[in-house]
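Exercise 7. Given the components listed, write out the predicted structure of the assembled complex. Treat all entries as one system.
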Amino acid sequence: MNDRPISFRVGTDCADCPIRHKAVCAHCDADELVRLEQIKTYRTYSAGEVIVWAGDEMDFVASLVSGVATLTQTMEDGRRQMVGLLLASDFIGRPNRSSVSYDVTATTDVTLCCFRRKPFQEVITNTPHVSQRLLEMTLDELDAAREWMLILGRKTAREKIASFLAILARRNAGASDLGPGIDIQFELPLTREAMSEYLGLTLETVSRQMSGLKRDGVILLEGKRRIVVPDFDALLNETGDDADGGMLA
Amino acid sequence: MNDRPISFRVGTDCADCPIRHKAVCAHCDADELVRLEQIKTYRTYSAGEVIVWAGDEMDFVASLVSGVATLTQTMEDGRRQMVGLLLASDFIGRPNRSSVSYDVTATTDVTLCCFRRKPFQEVITNTPHVSQRLLEMTLDELDAAREWMLILGRKTAREKIASFLAILARRNAGASDLGPGIDIQFELPLTREAMSEYLGLTLETVSRQMSGLKRDGVILLEGKRRIVVPDFDALLNETGDDADGGMLA
DNA sequence: CGCCCTTTTGAACACTTTCAAATCCCGTGG
DNA sequence: CCACGGGATTTGAAAGTGTTCAAAAGGGCG
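Answer.
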């Protein structure tokens, strides 16, 4: 019902983990990592696979080690809205609640670091480093959700696309150079349909607006999935936000 | 810059507090309450007053004791989207971050229980009962934000209005009777304009849809602000959600 | 009683959706 | 190596929903 493990890789050392310093375990010391090591298991899912369905029981919580996953809500009549876009180091599941509220889907191949629910709840209770990190991450997600609400509620289709691309560009570039004159490139981890579910649009509108941004030279497409942003400020100018941060004043 | 106290009421006992068992202090024992008492101050704001502006520094965090407040984001050109609707017991501010991301506005007369930022951060660090309660509350807010995202991204104007009224009805009725045959009544704490900012609509559309729901007998208006819901299921049927919870099967 | 702000209503318009069909792209198999 | 198949994407045209601009009606408070 709730798990479709494709493969297991047990015994991987937390010290070598690519998300060691960003995930829920970020603040842990060596002793605390040992506790987590004892209750963790890796699972992998392939692109397109559903990790859990809304309403199902999930006997674990997890950190997303690699890949991209989504949280999606579905209405009676099939209308769908994505409500979470999970990248490396993001947390899946809610302590003290075993039933899941949203469909969780792997949109690329995904590796999860899963913690058995019961013992993880004890860790939360006894390890302030973990619960405090989880609070930080949840507050960040809440901020992201609120930025997303502005996009959904008030932006035009073109602004929505530009905003989405800017968010991806920022997350992919990390803290590195987003200045003018530097080409930013990244892979789109979502289909046009998934983008439409993120942005509250139809996939046709997404396609049209992508074409529009390409036509206007704001983005270049290499194949269908690789995006090149020749001028990040130009992209920001399309988002409707305070793009240039008052550089003109 | 950041505070416009209208009046103070010092020395009020936490034991008598109306939000004692729902706010961030809910899990605290007597000793822990003493610590909070030492750093708290009450402030009141009158309807319409801005509590803090986005970007301002806030030297306190707070629990909303009574009244209704909103979090709102504003774009360059004046488009506005509400991203938080704060009712009694909700928490305002973010630990470890003194600058505020959204305009916080009192939409009715409001009383806050404010905690000085610095000492509150110590409480967070040293008092698991507080940090764990704050985590719970933040997770609840995140869930609410995600439900809201579905409303903004995928619902029609009529469904948005119905969903909003259903949310208010549920919060006001508390755990009590929402069954059929029981009239639910509540006061609208928001103007049409504030509703439009909540729902990503124009105020004209809000007004039209309210009229439509009234015309169809889904709601009754007593004055402009008091709403009567003669049949809660009928309202739910307008939300687009799985209204009757499978009662028909 | 009158003023002002909120709310309602009307009509034309704009943007996104819907429905339909063509095109592209990639993996597969001949 | 190239043709084929099928999902993903793009493009077109018509239709619909919500917005915009405008004006009237309603309500509360001095």
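Discussion: Confidence is low (pLDDT under 50) at residues 1-10, 245-249 of chain A. Residues 191-193, 203-204, 206-208, 210-211, 224 of chain A lie near DNA strand D (CB under 10 Å from a C1').
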